[in-house]
Amino acid sequence: MSDLYKHGTGDVLVERRDDGVLLITINRPERYNSLTMPMFEEMNQIWADVERDDQTRVVVVTGAGKAFCTGMDVAQPDPTPEQTLAMLETERKRVATVLRIEKPIISAINGPAVGYGLSTALLADISIAADDAVLIEGHTKVGVTAGDHAALIWPLLVGMAKTKYYVLTSEKLTGAEAERIGLVSLSVPREQVLPRALEVASQLARGSQQALRFTKRALNTWLTNAVPQHELSSALEIIDFASADYAEARQAFREKRPVDFPSARIASAPAN
Q1: Crossing angle for the helix pair 37-51 and 81-100, nearest 10 degrees?
Q2: Amino acid 268: pLDDT
Q3: How far apart are CA 106 and CA 24, in angstroms?
Q4: Which InterPro entries does the record match to this protein (predicted)?
Q5: Exposed site from 5, 22, 115, 222, fewest CB < 10 Å?
Q6: How far is residue 141's CA from residue 145's CA, in Å, rounded to a whole number?
Q7: What is the distance between the alpha carbons of residues 33 and 112, in angstroms, rounded to a whole number?
């Protein structure tokens, strides 16, 4: 692959297939493909490589094992403020790059997709989910603004009413329900997810590349016009990473107990 895709740690696998399809696999199955801090930058670099990769016509992204990607690994040490700022800037660049890539991107959602994982899944041009896969936006559950994709893509896919319900509540959907409301393109039995994604990718790789890329460019204008909303939500997410609510959510996860958000506590009534 020349100098492309050579900067990885082994937590993300990249396979070039004979038909012009590039398969990206998030590869931490023992942690449900949750991301360490270095993996955010690694994924950003991979998408930058995809943009300049002349040999690839279509990209398929999936997860190893039983999950697609469950977001940031909250078991790792708390990020410093500097790491948080760097990570969210990396995320801003990732989203911009994914929207700019003219090659079709297909997500094969083989299992749970949460937070960053759901962002990766939904920003793909075609999303194919296991009918029993669990999809959760998830940010508000850990005390932060839904900043990596929800304000950008959800309203266009399912409308504002469904967006507000699922993004504010962080209620889970199955792949089948996600297809019903228009959040994903297709839902199929779990064992068919990757084969179906590769089949669609191969079909697109044999098509008119100029027509496909120009069509994607035109359609993505809907998304690029909404980038200011995405950047606002990301900025608000940065603020939340310094909040007591986020600190409490992380501590509750480690202690395996319900979250008691400080901002939701009812103040005691003043004494008479």
Answers
A1: 20
A2: 52
A3: 10
A4: ClpP/crotonase-like_dom_sf, Enoyl-CoA_hydra/iso, Enoyl-CoA_hydra_C
A5: 222
A6: 10
A7: 9
Q: Do the beta carbons of residue 23 and residue 60 sit within 8 Å?
A: yes
Q: At 112, list the tokens.
A: 């749970």
DSSP codes of every residue in 19-74: TSEEEEEE--GGGTTPBPHHHHHHHHHHHHHHHT-TT-SEEEEEESTT-SB-SB-T
Burial class (CB in 10 A: 0-12, 13-18, 19+), 200: buried
The reported pLDDT for the residue numbered 230 is 87
Scan for tokens 């909404």, then name that residue: 226
Q: Which residues are CB-neighbours of 177 under 8 A, at least 6 positions away?
A: none
Q: Which of 184, 138, 174, 163 has the alpha carbon at shortest distance from 229?
A: 163
